[in-house]
């Protein structure tokens, strides 16, 4: 049996304690056994989201939370703004189109960092009352400054897709007055896919139109959650796992998690550069979720990833959209440490060599460890 290594920005590796919790016998979701777990998991979600508001929990992939935002915040024909700079910004556009919204794109090239002043001016000009954006654009490695984006859009409702960022990079839902923050279980929250979350700021509740989804109706979900009795059968085993995973995160503390992600990003960048590769993601500490490199000349990115997987059991993430075959992505969110980065770098180095690329050998891993150990976090 060959060992497999998962270095993708979702799904991510799941700690054994979390896997063990999910293997426990089934209990009924309306009994006292489950209620205690549910209540604790919901409270822990508020801690990780940094909010006093209810965090709604759905059985869905992360996109379910995005879908729920469009379904609960907007009526048909409403003018909305979408900040796009990658594949997940495009997903917002597709969701809003499907709900028949009047979408004003605030478009950046894939890999660009959205500029708050520009976004603020474009939102004001568009007259949109709801703005959809992406915190960590997982397709490019860019992490946007959502605190500044909220300041820039002023009274407009800001909806933040924090699916790959929550628990990895700082996000202060209440302190930054972010209206809606969405996340999912299979990224930095160290769980399998299947749970989606939405934190909704208190003042919004009075202004919500009639929800256009039955299952994802925020009001119905909140009403049930407030008495710890889910509206529909919750994903019992996943919530057991989530409870344990959030407990692990909070035990070490969010600051420790943020610092680890910064240092893992540094290690990944230092190693890739030492090999002679060019970074696609920003070469600074903002890029703490996923590190993206250009595939070197003469190598086909699709073949590189296939080779890594089939020959060495290592799974990295490919480029999406137009970047397919041109870049590869190393995720380092959630249950990752520097040895994972070392393994990913060593596998990339070996595979590129086997595919005939001219790269610097034997330096990436030591440079990664050095960068990981460097003291002093900026910001
Ligand atoms: C993973 C991810 C999603 C959601 O993907 P699902 O496959 O629906 O869980 C959305 N946005 C971003 C930025 C992501 O990284």
Radius of gyration: 21 Å
Under CATH, the homologous superfamily of the largest domain reads: Type I PLP-dependent aspartate aminotransferase-like (Major domain)
Average of per-residue pLDDT values: 97
Quote the distance from N terminus to C terminus. Answer: 45 Å
N-to-C SSE string, H for helix and E for strand: EHHEHEHEHEEEHEEEHHHEHEEEHH
Number of strands: 14
Specify the CATH class of the largest domain.
Alpha Beta
Number of domains: 2
Number of helices: 12
Largest sheet: 7 strands, mixed
Strand order of the largest sheet: 2-10-9-8-5-3-4
Helix proportion of residues, in percent?
Answer: 40-55%
* CATH topology annotation of the largest domain: Aspartate Aminotransferase, domain 2
Tags for this entry?
globular, seven-stranded mixed beta sheet, 41% helix, 12 helices, Aspartate Aminotransferase, domain 2, Aspartate Aminotransferase, domain 1, 379 residues, alpha/beta, binds pyridoxal-5'-phosphate
List the helices and strands and how they pair.
Blueprint: E1 5-6, H1 16-22, H2 32-49, E2 55-59, H3 62-73, E3 79-84, H4 87-98, E4 102-107, H5 116-126, E5 130-134, E6 136-137, E7 142-143, H6 146-153, E8 157-161, E9 180-184, E10 195-200, H7 218-226, H8 236-252, H9 254-274, E11 290-294, H10 301-312, E12 314-315, E13 317-318, E14 327-331, H11 338-354, H12 364-373
Parallel strand pairs: 1-12, 3-4, 3-5, 5-8, 8-9
Antiparallel strand pairs: 2-10, 6-7, 9-10, 11-14, 13-14
Helix pairs in contact: 1-8, 2-8, 5-6, 9-11, 9-12, 10-11, 11-12
The structure holds pyridoxal-5'-phosphate.
């Amino acid at each position: 049996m060959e060992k497999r290594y998962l270095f993708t920005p979702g799904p991510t590796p799941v700690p054994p304690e979390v896997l063990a919790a999910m293997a426990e016998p089934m209990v009924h979701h309306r009994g006292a056994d489950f209620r205690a777990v549910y209540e604790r998991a919901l409270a822990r979600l508020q801690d990780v989201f940094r909010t006093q508001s209810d965090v709604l929990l759905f059985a869905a992939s992360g996109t379910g939370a995005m879908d729920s935002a469009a379904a609960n915040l907007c009526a048909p024909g409403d003018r909305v703004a979408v900040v796009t700079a990658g594949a997940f910004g495009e997903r917002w556009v597709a969701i809003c189109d499907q709900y028949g919204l009047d979408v004003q794109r605030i478009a950046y090239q894939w890999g660009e960092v959205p500029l708050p002043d520009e976004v603020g001016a474009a939102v004001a000009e568009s007259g949109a009352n709801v703005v959809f954006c992406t915190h960590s654009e997982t397709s490019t490695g860019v992490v946007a400054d959502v605190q500044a984006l909220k300041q820039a859009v002023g009274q407009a409702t800001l909806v933040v897709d924090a699916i790959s960022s929550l628990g990895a990079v700082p996000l202060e839902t209440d302190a930054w007055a972010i209206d809606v923050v969405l996340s999912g279980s299979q990224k930095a929250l160290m769980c399998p896919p299947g749970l989606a979350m939405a934190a909704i700021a208190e003042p919004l509740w009075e202004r919500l139109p009639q929800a256009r989804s039955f299952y994802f109706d925020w009001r119905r979900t909140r009403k049930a959650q407030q008495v710890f009795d889910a509206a529909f059968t919750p994903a019992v085993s996943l919530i057991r796992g989530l409870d344990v995973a959030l407990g692990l995160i909070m035990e070490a503390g969010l600051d420790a998690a943020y610092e680890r992600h910064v240092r893992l990003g540094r290690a990944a960048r230092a190693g890739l550069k030492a090999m002679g590769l060019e970074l696609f993601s920003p070469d600074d500490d903002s890029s703490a979720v996923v590190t993206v490199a250009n595939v070197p000349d003469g190598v086909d990115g699709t073949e590189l990833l296939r080779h890594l997987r089939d020959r060495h059991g290592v799974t990295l993430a490919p480029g999406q959209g137009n970047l397919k075959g041109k870049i590869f992505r190393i995720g380092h969110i959630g249950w990752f440490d520097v040895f994972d980065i070392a393994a990913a770098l060593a596998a990339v180095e070996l595979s590129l060599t086997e595919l005939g690329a001219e790269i610097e050998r034997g330096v990436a891993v030591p440079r990664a460890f050095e960068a990981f150990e460097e003291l002093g976090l900026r910001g």
